[in-house]
Design a protein that fits this description.
Number of helices: 14
Strand content: 5-15%
CATH topology of the largest domain: Aspartate Aminotransferase, domain 2
Mean pLDDT: 89
Helix content: 25-40%
Strand order of the largest sheet: 2-8-7-6-5-3-4
CATH superfamily of the largest domain: Type I PLP-dependent aspartate aminotransferase-like (Major domain)
Distance between the termini: 8 Å
Length: 438
Amino acid sequence: MRRSRGKGARCSLPLPPLQYGVPSAAMTSQRGSRRRQPPAYSWPMDSGSRDTSAPGTANPLSRLSLEQLRRRTSMKWRTYPDDVLPLWVAEMDTPLAEPVARAIVDAVALGDTGYPAGTDYAEALAGFASGRWGWDGLAVKRTAIVPDVMLGIVEMLKLVSGPGDPVIVNSPVYPPFYQFIQNLGRPVVEAPLGPDGRIDFEVLEAAFGRVTDGRKRPVHLLCSPHNPTGTLHTAEELAEVARLARSYGVRVVADEIHAPIVASGATFVPYLSVPGAEDGLSLMSASKAWNLAGLKAALAVAGPDAAADLARLPEEVGHGPSHVGVIAHTAALRHGGDWLDALLAGLDDNRRLLADLLAAHLPAVRCAPAQATYLAWLDCRSLGADGDPATLFLDRGRVALNSGADFGTGGAGFVRMNLATSPELITEAVHRMAAALD
């Protein structure tokens, strides 16, 4: 069956592998399927063809060659066969920011690889929040280091809820929300986003009403900015979340890991900065914005009325982060601003590039421009494809994307694409996806 799309394109780039928790059908079906060999490879392999300008000024997304990326041993590049183009898991195809790399090398040279201590990370985040977001309300004394954002969320849920207490999420949303919440013995209650990808407050209030019975301690796990849609919640929206939560006795825990990654002209608003959020808890990290997922560290931040809750965090939780990770994250927040600005400019370019490519080659695929994150949420429902589009693009196009079905209600028929890569890879991916529909 020939499916509706625009002009066809050649499929040409043989590449490396990937993974993501428990692989979905779209990620595993390639093992038993007939592999279509892409035609001749078109992207120059030698690093000399890439941008080699000084770090901090050049686009970090254009600095590594395909040959260099193939030498990586992390999840993104080692999960799938070499002929698959990996644009799925949230890793960036960038070198480390020079201040971060220098801090790591200095720590290793000194043998400073013990247990984490002190408040440097929190102080750096407070300075970053003030400079970037105009928020001076991040009190260092109301913070705690945690191993990473998801494990920090688990610890916050333990502090403000118990087994069997419901956790509300705005689907479609980051798949580990479901996994971690359920493994903790809390039922997930969905309050789906509206058709515009924003919080539907009638739906949210109805969900709050269903879980409030006086005996339970419900929690709203807020994703801000929202993964996978890239929605940036406004101050007014966040204040309404806080108002409803207070009204219904729901505690709010905010995952704000993507906070530094915003489109040009957009501004992130911390949940704890809005009126009514005084009893909220937030998880923040430099991990996403500086590609530090392998250097584990994050911060839990409490509003004034949640300070006593955070004070009950078991001491051993603070032993879980990597000390070298804390050093790296601190350096990123204090000294990585120029690098981050170059990254954000590159992501703006990639968003525009993707829009142009879809219009030219896959006009039936819709993608609302993201205000934040480096993710693109592609609506493939008009393609007329049978089954999961992620499976189709993997099996026939050799492009690995995240299946929208994994993101809960509202995700079926969508795929998530990682734009934190070079323009060449994005271009090749869309060409392959278009060719997959022939």
